[in-house]
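Many groups now describe folds with learned vocabularies. In that spirit, our science desk offers one protein's residues alongside their backbone shape tokens.
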Amino acid sequence: MKHRKVAGMTALVPPEVIYASGWSARDVNNGIPCSDCRPRSKLCAWTAGWREEIFAGNLRLDALVVVAGGDCHNALADGQNAARKVDRAHFLFYPFDGDVDYMRGQLDRLTKFLTKGSSPPKGQKKLMSQIEELKGMGRDVERARSEGRIDPALAFRTLISFSDFEGDVARFRDKVINVLDKRESGGRQEDDMKGLDRKPRVALIGVPPIYRDFHAVCAEAGLHAVFDELPHEFVRLGGSDIEELAKSYSTYTFARPVDYRLEALKKDLDRHDIDGIIHYTQFTCHHLLEDGMLREKLKWPMLTLQGDLPGETPAQIRMRLEAFAEMLGGNRPKKKVNG
């Protein structure tokens, strides 16, 4: 098999376009929680982390796609900086107003950048259909996690990887099948999951926690994490051709006005029958400023947490999670939920 060039992505970039153009995708954020990176200068540890990794040559990329308008404002500044160390760079903008034609234009520009204006490789349509099927499997993982049939930590690790399919669509598909078949325990035995459906059900909204053990810590604190907002977007968005992709990705909630995102959140949270919300915010992230609006518009009890550097969940946050679980109450009635 011919080696695929690697396109790094600083925030969500439609991976369908990258793979269909003959490249492999690499979400530069996904390795940060397990890293020991301590940036010399930073605002956000997420973006400064991958910036330093690119500078040090630890992230070897053939191109970098910087999301200049979308879910992460810090990615634009650190992305421009990191782009100086990569041979080729491209800037992608999401339409704030959801204009489908604008989104289609952005996808066309991305395709031309990756293919250098030549025709995409053969099998493009088949590959997009395979990815669309794979994302359906991701939604199956979401449902199984919500119903207590998959360890929440394992489900999160799987869902977050839908941003780039871990660099190989076929290999990642096999991994997802293993998760759905419960052939991987994620470090917890099935016996440890008994009673999970009786714990208070919480949704995690905002950017993903930078702490690598956060979902396991939630379970230890007595909480059943049944939903993650950003990974949900990874498996929700998609399509089998460029027109469907443009229409779908124009609805990417993190790149739209907060009121638009709130309406989508309300529907998702209602469907998951939650008892409370954990709003994770990253130090210096602009999404922190949305906390007041989220508290005003969402009807559930909310715990707001702020993190900074990657690693294990700090003791202070562990204590706050335990207190939140106690506040939400003890065992809840057993009930089947359609996630």
